[in-house]
Write a structure and sequence with these properties.
- By secondary structure, this protein is of the alpha/beta class.
- The chain is built from six helices and 19 strands.
- Strands 1, 2, 3, 4, 5, 6, 17, 18 and 19 form a nine-stranded mixed beta sheet that branches.
- The two termini are 14 Å apart.
Length: 363
């Protein structure tokens, strides 16, 4: 492809999934480049709110080959994990190009993929998509939403509790982020209200390896059917820790069913009840950031990309790491290695059974 830099593998995304994949590509001697749209190391963690300290993080598994040790649990997770990712890139010489925003991935017509961005174009024999979900916050739509005179924001731009002092806040969503927001906002707000579509499920007791495998299997089944993936956390339930117990006892975590409409001054239910609000905080999750793959027509009728392991069923050159069952931090690490093993076999087939040496830092 004229004007495109040739490389064996393009990795899109420089978070945990992308760095894990780059580590395994480097060890396999496969030429690669990592394209990350973020301004600095840290993946989506660099955008998390300051009050989310490392001690509150809901599980963070170390990257392959380097443990995260002696982290101060009182420091913001954005700083702790950002520094860890930066040190990891330096230790293993993982050349990450940033900020590079991949606009589209197309079939180049010569067996290669054309990866397009304002920073340049790459011709790749395979692509590992490790873009996660942070860039696609999900905003539900409800009648009257445009009439609300207060403030609406999403977890993706949550600033921390300090901006909600003396405000009446409605938090929407049944996940971990919603619970964390409520617990800290309630300490400064005039009033908080929690609404969810379904009653939240709390998990009491340990969550072992067997439970983890069962949860991942549920997510994996959806992906194999070509349905949009659910997060692994969505099928594990909410951990019932001391802070959550205290929130339940105080009434902060008393859940109301989803409202039917939004008014100029709050939210309302079909039975006529209303809650006045200054802020609606949508802790309603995220969707996979895969719009740049649209030219490849990978989606199934169900709306998702069907994958086997990490490989897209419709195009074996495409691997999705951190998608569906590999969306957890430990899942992303394992999936990075699995994707590289499959890509190595594919490249070998394309070269008459031999894998030629490649420059790890090509492109």
């Amino acid at each position: 492809m004229q004007g495109a830099a040739g490389v064996d593998v393009v990795v899109v995304g420089g978070g945990q999934a992308g760095l894990s994949s780059a580590y395994h590509l480097a060890r396999a001697g496969i030429g690669y480049v990592v394209l990350d749209h973020a301004p600095r190391p840290g993946g989506a963690w660099q955008f998390r709110w300051p009050s989310l300290t490392y001690g509150k993080v809901h599980g963070m598994h170390a990257l392959p080959g380097m443990e995260l040790t002696d982290a101060d649990p009182l420091r913001p997770s954005s700083a702790v994990i950002g520094e860890y990712f930066a040190a990891y890139e330096e230790r293993f010489g993982l050349r990450v190009r940033r900020p590079v925003n991949v606009a589209a991935v197309r079939d180049g017509g010569d067996g290669r993929l054309r990866v397009e961005s304002p920073a340049g174009t790459w011709a790749a024999r395979a692509l590992i998509n490790a873009t996660g979900t942070w860039d696609r916050p999900f905003w539900p739509r409800y009648p009257g939403q445009e009439t609300f005179r207060g403030r609406q924001l999403h977890t993706a731009n949550y600033p921390g509790p300090q901006e909600f002092a003396r405000a009446r806040v409605v938090v929407v969503g049944g996940g971990t982020s919603a619970v964390q927001h409520l617990l800290e906002i309630a300490e400064v707000a005039a009033e908080t209200t929690w609404v969810t579509r379904r009653p939240p499920v709390f998990r009491d007791g340990s969550f072992g390896e067997a439970e983890g495998r069962a949860a991942v299997a549920l997510v994996d089944e959806r992906v194999r059917q070509g349905l949009p993936p659910q997060s692994v956390v969505s099928v594990t339930g909410l951990p019932l820790n001391e802070a959550v117990r205290a929130g339940m006892a105080s009434g902060v975590l008393e859940r109301r069913p989803m409202f039917d409409r939004i008014t100029a001054t709050g939210v309302a239910w079909a039975d006529g009840s209303q809650v006045e609000a200054d802020v609606i905080l949508w802790a309603t999750g995220f969707r996979a950031a895969i719009e740049h793959l649209a030219p490849l027509h990978l989606r199934e009728p169900g709306g998702g990309i069907r994958v086997e392991g990490t490989r897209a069923v419709r195009d074996e050159r495409i691997h999705l790491v951190g998608y569906g069952p590999s969306a957890s931090t430990i899942g992303a690490n394992r999936a990075g290695g699995a994707a590289v093993r499959e890509i190595r076999r594919m490249l070998a087939r394309g070269r008459d059974g031999t894998l030629e040496p490649a420059s790890v830092h090509s492109a």
